[in-house]
Design brief:
By secondary structure, this protein is of the alpha+beta class. Among the domains are: 142 residues, no CATH class; 97 residues, Alpha Horseshoe (Leucine-rich Repeat Variant), CATH 1.25.10.10. The chain is 41% helix and 12% strand. The protein has a 4-stranded antiparallel sheet, sandwiched between helices. The chain has a 3-stranded mixed sheet with strand order 10-3-11. A hairpin with a 2-residue loop joins strand 8 and strand 9. Helix 15 packs parallel to helix 17 and helix 16 runs antiparallel to helix 17. The longest helix is centred in the N-terminal third of the chain and has 19 residues. The relative contact order is 0.13. The model has no long low-confidence stretch (mean pLDDT 91). Bound molecules: iron/sulfur cluster (2 copies). The site of one iron/sulfur cluster has 12 residues, from helix 7 and helix 9.
Length: 364
């Protein structure tokens, strides 16, 4: 039967790094934390499955004996301040969404690894999960020794930082487990200081409902009190990772694909969106969510010339976009913005949008 070293060697040859091995017994230590998060509402709504489904690998593959955990480095961080999504002049999307959709890429590589193992292993059974599966990828990675938990809730691989996509393969073969890494953040607390919304409520604890990564993916209305803290984030947020010393040390930093032309996005139709975002993880929520986020970014940039874009956004078919456009116009302020809002007040019929318009005028 195939052994760990051959699996690791092949995995690395196809770009998976780091790679580690864990037992397939339950992740019982997560139960309390998951139940607490359910209780306190620290959930995004994107989580799959019940608490039991999230901690018991064998509910998904009965014969599971081991788990192969793997990372795929994307290393799209640079420490530049204007790439941190608050003070920049252009929109930015998370480095994790800048390239081809990683779910697909990582899943493809794990499938490739499964084919390799199956050639040497009679009756090989496996199940691959990448992000959207019930198991908690980070906990699997931690158990398999890929990295340690940072205070920003990311898994940090000592030599690669946290810019790695995580996935796993449950397998019906016994593979000796690796040890967890005996490392932590020490006295550092930079990520907590740099989080613009206070989503990192304490070390290792994320209030998802305040996290920009969640806010830019959720449907509907972004809470008014958080909009001004979102800066120019159009999709996702890497701020607590960008400032992390472990990512500053990681090799191959780049911001390629991270910049978004807000004007282009605001004027984009369905076809342009499909061409630009069809292979990107940033496209999964659809064009209107990105437009809503772009409108918020315009409100935070506070540039008078952007009222040309908001004039159109305030008559968009989506009430959510119209409402956020009213907020953004109010943030920009001035006579022209006031005129746009007063005109909208006379033509708007939607109660939510009317409320946004009135508040925007009152706050100007
Ligand atoms: S992703 Fe952004 S908003 Fe979320 S915890 Fe990190 S810095 Fe805060
Ligand atoms: S910034 Fe500091 S505290 Fe936060 S995850 Fe990185 S090392 Fe840990």
């Amino acid at each position: 039967m195939i052994g760990k070293e051959l699996i690791r060697e092949y995995a690395r040859s196809i770009g998976l790094d780091p790679v580690g091995f864990a037992g397939a017994h339950s992740f019982e230590r997560l139960r309390e934390m998951l139940e607490e998060r359910h209780g306190k509402g620290y959930l995004s709504g994107f989580e799959a499955g019940t608490v039991d489904e999230r901690i018991h690998p064998r509910l998904h593959l009965e014969e599971a004996r081991s788990i192969i955990a793997a990372g795929l480095p994307y290393l799209r961080f640079s420490g530049q301040e204007d790439m941190c999504g608050i003070d920049g002049s252009a929109g930015i999307i998370s480095g994790s969404a800048a390239g081809e959709d990683y779910h697909r890429v990582l899943k493809g590589k794990l499938e490739q690894l499964a084919v390799y193992i199956s050639r040497e292993t009679p009756n090989f059974k496996y199940l691959i999960m990448v992000d959207t599966g019930p198991l908690v990828d980070r906990e699997v990675a931690y158990r398999a020794g890929l990295g340690f938990y940072g205070k920003n809730c990311s898994i940090i691989a000592p030599s690669l930082g946290s810019g790695i996509f995580l996935g796993e393969m449950l397998v019906n073969i016994e593979l000796e487990p690796d040890s967890v890494l005996d490392m932590d953040c020490g006295e550092c607390g930079i990520c907590l200081e740099k989080c613009p919304t206070g989503a990192l409520v304490k070390p290792y604890t994320l209030d998802v409902a305040r996290c920009i990564s969640y806010l830019t993916q959720k449907k509907g209305i972004i809470p008014r009190e958080l909009r001004s803290r979102i800066g120019v984030h159009i999709y996702g947020c890497d701020r607590c990772q960008r400032y992390c010393p472990y990512n500053n040390k990681a090799l191959g930093q780049t911001d390629e694909g991270v910049i978004v032309d807000i004007k282009e996005l605001m004027e984009m139709g369905k076809r342009g969106f499909a061409e630009r975002y069809k292979n990107s993880a940033a496209g999964w929520r659809g064009l209107n969510i990105l437009k809503r986020n772009a409108v918020v970014a315009l409100g935070n940039l506070k540039r008078g010339e952007d009222l040309d874009l908001l004039v159109k956004a305030i008559i968009h078919p989506s009430p959510v976009i119209r409402g956020h456009a009213a907020w953004a116009a109010g943030r920009i302020g001035g006579e022209r913005a006031e005129g746009i809002l007063i005109k909208a007040l006379h033509t708007e019929k939607d109660e939510y949008v009317l409320d946004e318009i009135k508040k925007a005028i009152a706050e100007m």
